[in-house]
Amino acid sequence: xxxxxxxxxxxxxxxxxxxxxxxxxxxxxxxxxxxxxxxxxxxxxxxxxxxxxxxxxxxxxxxxxxxxxxxxxxxxxxxxxxxxxxxxxxxxxxxxxxxxxxxxxxxx
Length: 108
Description:
The chain is about 35% helix and about 30% strand. By secondary structure, it is of the alpha+beta class. A 3-stranded mixed beta sheet has the order 1-2-3, covered by helices on one side. Strands 4-5 form a two-stranded antiparallel sheet.
């Protein structure tokens, strides 16, 4: 019985890790990329770098801050799509308070 319970726990953990869907935004229109993120809450977008041929780029893009980890905020980012080179999406990032401080108080 303990073995079955332990196996079920491992399956649940593995299922949670596979929960985020992966997409190639260059095969979708910008509207479809944004609608996919809005519908699923968080997705991974994977595409090829335009500056370095053959270099795959990817990140986790979110609908709102509820899909970010504690201490992170939603920040605008841009990905290529089938119909535009820069489709506006959002990523989670840690705020850089020190940079804001320098910019505000150390400008001449």
